[in-house]
């Protein structure tokens, strides 16, 4: 079942996450993974969730994440409370990727979808690799307002910050 505009965001969506702290700002600092209950935390927020096949990969690191970092002020102007990136990588890798991109605090949440469970549940995991697909979802107070998956390998057209901004 893929998500579409007008759907409710699923209940019981839990990711893994390592919260940023000043003490663990170094890329070699591990931190402690915790559960991040997206369904609960996002119920009364406007959220942009974008998913990538893998941290530290060329398209994801060069074309996808930087667009969201650069457009954070524009997303905030459109009322977005939370921006989160999701990948199948473990929470340690996702935390390091956030630090490598100089993302501090909760500017962008770097979330882990272990075994691509969430992506598989909405039909947006890559069947061949088992990784999360490349997609973007806008959730506004529990309702999906935008949901698009890239169908072209390496493309960042429907899931990039510009496409999401245009939908807001």
Automatic annotation (TrEMBL):
Organism of origin? Penicillium salamii
Q: Which residues cross the membrane?
A: none
Coiled-coil segments on the chain, per record:
none
Q: From which domain of life does this come?
A: Eukaryota
Q: Which family does it belong to?
A: Belongs to the peroxiredoxin family. Prx5 subfamily.
What's this protein's name? Thioredoxin peroxidase
Q: Does the keyword Oxidoreductase apply?
A: yes
For this chain, one GO molecular function annotation is:
thioredoxin peroxidase activity
- Function field: Thiol-specific peroxidase that catalyzes the reduction of hydrogen peroxide and organic hydroperoxides to water and alcohols, respectively. Plays a role in cell protection against oxidative stress by detoxifying peroxides.
Q: Which UniProt keywords apply?
A: Antioxidant, Oxidoreductase, Peroxidase, Redox-active center
Q: What positions does the domain Thioredoxin occupy? A: 3-168
Q: Which GO terms describe its cellular component?
A: mitochondrion; peroxisome
Which Gene Ontology BP terms does the record give? cell redox homeostasis; cellular response to oxidative stress; hydrogen peroxide catabolic process
> One matching Pfam family, short form?
Redoxin
Active site positions, chain numbering? 60
């Amino acid at each position: 079942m893929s998500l579409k505009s007008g759907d409710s965001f699923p209940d019981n969506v839990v990711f893994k996450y390592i919260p940023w702290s000043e003490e663990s700002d170094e890329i070699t600092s591990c931190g402690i993974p915790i559960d991040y209950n997206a369904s609960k935390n996002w119920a009364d927020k406007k959220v942009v969730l974008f998913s990538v096949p893998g941290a530290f990969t060329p398209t994801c690191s060069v074309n996808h994440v930087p667009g969201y970092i650069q457009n954070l002020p524009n997303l905030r102007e459109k009322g977005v409370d939370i921006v989160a990136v999701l990948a199948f990588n473990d929470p340690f890798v996702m935390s390091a990727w956030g630090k490598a991109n100089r993302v501090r605090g909760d500017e962008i949440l770097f979330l882990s979808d272990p075994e691509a469970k969430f992506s598989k549940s909405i039909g947006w995991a890559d069947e061949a690799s088992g990784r999360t697909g490349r997609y973007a979802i806008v959730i506004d107070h529990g309702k999906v307002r935008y949901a698009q998956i890239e169908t072209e390998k390496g493309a960042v057209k429907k899931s990039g910050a510009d496409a999401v901004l245009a939908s807001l």
